[in-house]
Amino acid sequence: MPSTWEEFYAENPPPSDLDKNKQRVQEFCQKQLEHGSHIVLVTSGGTTVPLEHLTVRFVDNFSAGTRGASSAEYFLNSGYAVIFMHRIKSIEPFVRHVMGSKFLDMLQVSSSSNGSPTISVKPSEVDNLLPILSKYKAAQESQKLLQVGFTTLSDYLWLLRAICECLSAFGSRAMLYLAAAVSDFYVPAEQMPTHKIQSQDGVPTIHLELVPKILQPLVSLWVPSAYVVSFKLETDENILIKKARSALNTYKHKIVIGNLLQSRRNRVVFVTTHDESEARLTHSQEQQGLEIEELIVAHLKREHEKFISGTN
Region Disordered: what ranges (predicted)? Predict the structure, then answer.
């Protein structure tokens, strides 16, 4: 079984589109370096663990990518260039506001003067859609947003390392906002059957291995000068701070954002090696549509600026 991150990469092949995505990331990073931009990598969504090489079945988690997608928007608002590394088909920035039938409900079909059908936004929905569309177009025109997709755990880890290689050139101006829900267990490639597991063969025995802790080489080797942010999700408040501090002591990164499953939409705790602080939405703020990610990004922007200036 792979016991180190080096062995994981040696024993699990890269995704077929890795070179294409690396080129896209390199071109994006070069533009941001030329502009002197601050840049953030936002990882978002869950990772699948295939049970077969020709995958029909897989192990998954519940993450839909809400935190990553909303945070990416607030980082763009704060002036950052954003690489949004997301689980394919998870929630994406801007689109998240008008997903599914909600978007179709905003449209109407009518006839033009020559009788041809036309599609337009309902007048009652213009004020809702216009700010979203304007911000999306601004992000596209400024070339400050790059979206890169993954599906499996192996895809995620290969892509993460490739992006870190590009971000190392930014030094302290780079932030990594590791909000993806990465699987803790996986099936090693050599133990997976090639074809679909057949139910007629009875209940399969599946042996899962622990995923090597990639945060260690990321912090110490790949982007040693970057401002690295990780997340810790728990269900027991009594162990949340302890687990967050344990992660900081182990991996030596800058901050852990702790949150409880039950209250993750309205409360988080920022834990560093020297202190802890809280961000919480009031009931009134929630009613007004304020999102906790806006408070998270504002806090991180201040701390990142301190870090860059050497006062953190």
Answer: 1-21
CA distance 220 to 311: 21
The phi and psi torsions of 173 (rounded to 5 degrees) equal -75, -5
In angstroms, rounded to a whole number, what is the distance separating the alpha carbons of residues 230 and 248? Answer: 9
Helix crossing, 18-35 with 153-167: angle to 10°? 30
Q: What is the pLDDT of residues 114-161, one digit of tens each?
A: 878 999 999 999 999 999 999 999 999 999 999 999 999 999 999 999
Q: Is the C-alpha dihedral spanning 197, 199, 205, 207 positive or negative?
A: positive
* C-alpha separations of 33 from 26, 60, 84, 120 in Å: 10, 36, 17, 40
Q: Which residue has the tokens 């260039």?
A: 81
Over 9-24, what HEC string results? Answer: HHHCCCCCCHHHHHHH
SS3 80: coil
179 within 8 A of 43, measured Cβ to Cβ? yes
In the sheet that 255-260 helps form, which strands lie side by side, from edge to edge? 145-150, 81-87, 39-44, 174-178, 227-234, 255-260, 267-271, 276-280
Please write the tens of the pLDDT for every residue from 214-265.
999 999 999 999 999 999 988 898 999 999 999 999 999 999 999 998 999 9
